[in-house]
Design brief:
By secondary structure, this protein is an alpha+beta fold. It has two domains: 35 residues, no CATH class; 52 residues, no CATH class. A three-stranded antiparallel beta sheet has the order 3-4-5, with helices on one face. A two-stranded antiparallel sheet has the order 1-2. α1 packs across α2. This is Transposase.
Length: 90
């Protein structure tokens, strides 16, 4: 059994977020159903770029290169931020 702190560290979220997700779970049909959309798998091909956003800071943007539908803008282009974000996928 893993502690909330261990789960939070593994998923790169706060222990409070783990508690909130557990609290918001709905018990149906003998199992828990979660109301949150966890990150899915990464697309086969991605496009990425950086751009100047508000206050002359650079942000990082990426999208599914084949469908151009799924995209995300990260608040900065720091390696730490980008790495932490992409490690959240499974």
């Amino acid at each position: 059994m893993m502690t909330e702190k261990t789960v939070a560290k593994h998923l790169h979220i706060s222990p409070n977020s783990v508690q909130r997700i557990e609290y918001d779970a709905i018990y149906e049909g003998g199992q828990y159903k979660y109301q949150y959309n966890f990150k899915q798998q990464l697309p086969e091909a991605i496009s990425m770029d950086e751009f100047r956003s508000a206050n002359d800071q650079f942000s990082f943007i990426w999208c599914d290169a084949t469908s151009i539908k799924q995209f995300e803008v990260l608040p900065n282009r720091l390696t730490k931020t980008i790495k932490q974000y992409f490690l959240g996928f499974h």
